[in-house]
């Protein structure tokens, strides 16, 4: 599965471009506003370390400016243009950046705690080791957003759009992605415990090795998802979820709720579904070879077109469940009934 272009990979961990040679000290907020009123070009202008707390720069054009380690806490940057700006180590705590355009900017090691970035454009942005807990990125554009090790814990990313995005080792516990659209997103080993993915749509994404314990996926649509061995879905809520051509082979789904879901051509081979709820779920053309379903509840589940050989149904409740070719049938069904205690 091709997630990223070669060009994006080549810049994934490239060191950030250094700031220009130091000249005059960075202007104070008043001087910066005077420069903007005079129409002075900001591209390449060195504002490193500037104290710009609480400044109002709504709609200003700061594209290409150097703002390394600048202090913009509580600033208003609504609709501001900061394309290709160097924002390494910038402080944006509680800043209002709604609708701002940061395309191609570098946010490595930046901090934006509780910042408002709703509707912002962050296409091609790099934010490695950034710390943005509690930030509001609702409706943000995150295409080719590269953020290895970013902290998005308890951030809100409802309805965001992300294509060819990298979130390796991201920390996003308790984050919210309701209605988000992911396409070719790489989120290996991401920490997404208790994250809210309700009504999201993920296509050709990779979550292998991610911590998804207690996460919520009600009515999500997952197509071509890779979330196999090492991915932990323990206690996850997947009620009504739809999957197509996904691989969860060897993943942990103990105690998860998959009831009323529809899982098409999905590989559950050797998965741990101990104590899971699969009531009224459908599994057309799935592989459940070697799956562990001890003490699971599968009332009315449909395994009729799945391969369930060598599955462990000890203590499972399978009343009204359907098993037939090419899965369990005949003598195998009798064995399942005996293990599950079904008369």
TrEMBL record:
UniProt cross-references to InterPro entries, sorted A to Z: 5peptide_repeat, Pentapeptide-BTB/POZ_domain
SUPFAM superfamilies reported in the protein's UniProt record: Pentapeptide repeat-like (SSF141571)
Protein name: Pentapeptide repeat-containing protein
Taxonomic lineage from the root: Bacteria, Pseudomonadati, Pseudomonadota, Betaproteobacteria, Burkholderiales
